[in-house]
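Researcher: We're teaching a course module on how sequence relates to structure. For the next exercise, students receive a sequence and then see the predicted structure as tokens, so they can try to spot secondary structure elements on their own. Here is the exercise chain.
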Amino acid sequence: MQNPAAAPAAGPLAGIRVLELGQLIAAPFATKILAEFGAEVIKVEAPKEGDPLRKWRKMHEGTSLWWYLQSRNKKSIAVNLKSADGLDLVKDLARSADVVVENFRPGGLEKLGLGWDVLSGLNPNLVMVRISGYGQTGPYRDRPGFGAIGESMGGIRFTTGSPDSPPARVGVSIGDTLASLHGVIGALMALLHVKTGAGAGQVVDVSLVESVFNVMESLVPEYDLLGEVRTRTGGALPGITPSNTYPSQDGGFVVIAGNSDPIFRRLMTVIGRPDLAEDPALRGNDGRSAVSGMLDGVIADWTRSRSVEEALAALDAADVPAGRIYSVADIVTDPHYAARDMILEAELPGGTRVKMPGIVPKLSATPGAVRWQGPALGAHTDSVLTDLGRDAETIERLRREGAIG
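Model: And here is the predicted structure for the students to work with:
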């Protein structure tokens, strides 16, 4: 496992300053990615409480393990946004920032006096990424929108789960993270526009609903032209055959993707059905999809007669894409994850060692790096304010008056 302390300190975003005005998942996950690739991310938190994520899920000595991951490489400053002096500090940071990322409800920053009109007036080259439930415009803009609502309204919940069960959710906050990824893409495109001299800064308007909707493939044209309402299909991939999850003799499951024409023929051959491999009606995906139930049954009959290991060995030898369904216990002991530096060793306060996920994507010349884990609340307040030109006496006064923590 890679030692993050030995990783390079710079990255492709070195020299880019990002101001994070967000909490929980969507905005902070976006800035985590930017920080991993070298951006200086200054996270503004409320004094005393900080980001609620600090107390979410499993804890280590009173701090969330999720926090240490989500906030690595970030600088934390504790600023009271209800204080005039605190707002002035944020405005000063925005003057020197390249990007602001926020996930307030639309209008929230405007109520504080930190809206786009104010911040872009201070810094015309500023890029502002705004992540919200429904976007900055439209009849639903003022509704509260968490990731679960984005997943529901974006279409993914309706297609997730078994046909005979209610719509299910993915076991992680997929709506938030999809919005984060769209926010990062938008930020980089807008930054390129600025840095190449093509124009000034702009707003990147990211909706959780639209971020989910954007990955829903051909959902809309299938409905519009054919009246097809895609729904839940369990482990199968609708209209792409065969691609499903199949039971094994030892109580496990094997995921098999045999849906390209040559792979299908190899799959049928290895399971002892060369007749199906050579059937002209099954040469193309459309013909196979018409009899998907039959094909799934044939494949399941074969997998039920073998252990997971036996099935995977035979499929691998036949060059058929297949795999087991990994738990986290499988992931952290897998040699491929280790070889790709996807499991990193980290140190928490007090010296406790812990495994953390690695960095995605892999850049050959300017890779991302972990420089430190999520910091204590306000750990960088004094140093960031000193960089802004505040002297020790001013910083002490601001703390005494409650503008900073």
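Model: If you want an answer key for the exercise: Residues 270 and 318 are 7 Å apart (CA to CA). Residues 1-8 have pLDDT under 50 and may be disordered.
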